Amino acid sequence: MQFFPIFQRLENCHCLFVGGGKIALRKAKTLFPSGIKIDVMAFDILPELEELSISSKGEIQKNVFSTELVRNNYTYIIAATDCKKTNLAVANFAKENNIPVNVVDSQALCDFIFPAIVNRNPLTIAISNSGSSPILSRLLKQQINQYVPDAYGDLSKFVGQHRIKVNASITDKNTRVAFWQKVLQGSSAETIFSGNHQQAEKMLSEALENPQAFNQKGEVYLIGAGPGDPDLLTIRAFRLLQQADVVLYDRLVSDQVMALIDDSTEKIYVGKKRDNHSVEQGDINQLLVKYARQGKRVARLKGGDPFIFGRGGEEIEMLVDEEIPFQVVPGITAANGCSAYAGIPLTHRDYAQSVQFVTGQLKDGSIELNWVELIAPNKTLVFYMGLTGLPLICKSLIENGMEATTPLALIEKGTTQQQRVFISTLEKMPEVLLEENVVSPALLIVGNVVKLSEKLSWF
């Protein structure tokens, strides 16, 4: 480790910037929030840098660098000119006077370097690779920005405000550590992320009344996994999956999404196929209760969105009855994901002003739907679980008045690398199904918007 990361209090410190251009301004902006006093020495100084210096109660010297003009009581010196000779002179002066120096774009002359910073005040994340690649540090910063919400700063403040109270209430160190882990990775933290600070305060107070019981209390996360592409998983879904102890997943969750779950997490397959239920719904409900009562964080992972033909409502009804804490994380539903990846907008000013989601699952060899109600001009129909019943769906729509030439799209394994899209009509799609070995999951889209697929297809 060439540069050791240290977080230093800079409120009473003094820094000299030699150079008054954009590079000096960028570095000064980084230091300014820490409360450091900023002096600037340069013949030409950007107005914004001057204002920053004055705001920090620093001094401005409009001169070229001269050692005679530099005091030796600086905490830091930063050489930020475009002249290598001047930067070297600044570095030599600083080293002779034992003042840590940073020379922009010259790692060999630096006593310290600037990290890429993710600021979630008071939480600060600093990224460095010893100056070898600032671009790589910036790229990592972008990734961290995606996965660490701004509200982590609020969570950090919340913990700081209550740390003394918790320490006084829970004297046993192991119990206290378990307590904070539960708070930081449970519903209290998620309540902070949602902006409901009063509720978070209430939850913490209730937890402190009986820390042992709180530590043993589990929770269920009802998570929508989206239609298949792991990049479509929401940030919140990803975060909760990483902290789950147990994951109950169904058949429609893609292998790519499952690969994001840590190997140490217990994974239980509870998938269901038509006429072949691996685990009955009632048994799934009981598994959620069982693991939650063991104090575990249980992720119930469903393909698409748990509230769109996912029976999520039934599961959380049971959790409410059993007084099990839970969270619901929406997912990109199959209709949205598959249609977008197939280049088919579900609504369009010229073709469809409404869209209806329908389950096409067979029951006793038939599909119980109000076919007349489904048929309307300028409307898009999306059939979930309609692969087996496709011939009956096409036949019923035609018999009830829909034009046989109405465009229809059959999307197999939408949003994944195995996606296939078949475009035909109500009349001819059953023949396509016979010719092609289409497998589930598959989605049907009926309506004139399907005409746009050839033009708008991008994936």
Describe, in plain words, how this protein is organized in 3D.
The chain is α/β, with parallel strands linked by helices. It has five domains: 14-114, Rossmann fold, CATH 3.40.50.720; 115-148, Double Stranded RNA Binding Domain, CATH 3.30.160; 151-210; 218-332, Cobalt-precorrin-4 Transmethylase, domain 1 (3-Layer(aba) Sandwich); 335-456, Methyltransferase, Cobalt-precorrin-4 Transmethylase, Domain 2. The chain is 37% helix and 19% strand. The chain has 18 helices and 19 strands. The protein has helices at residues 22-31, 47-55, 84-96, 134-147, 151-169, 173-184, 187-193, 197-209, 211-215, 235-243, 255-258, 281-293, 312-321, 334-341, 371-374, 390-399, 429-435, 453-456; strands at 14-18, 37-41, 60-61, 76-79, 101-103, 116-120, 123-127, 219-224, 246-249, 266-269, 272-273, 276-277, 297-302, 326-329, 354-359, 379-384, 407-412, 420-425, 442-446. Strands 3-2-1-4-5 form a five-stranded parallel β-sheet, with helices on both faces. A hairpin with a 7-residue loop joins strand 17 and strand 18 (420-425). The chain is globular. The chain starts with 13 loop residues before the first strand and ends with a helix. The mean pLDDT is 91.
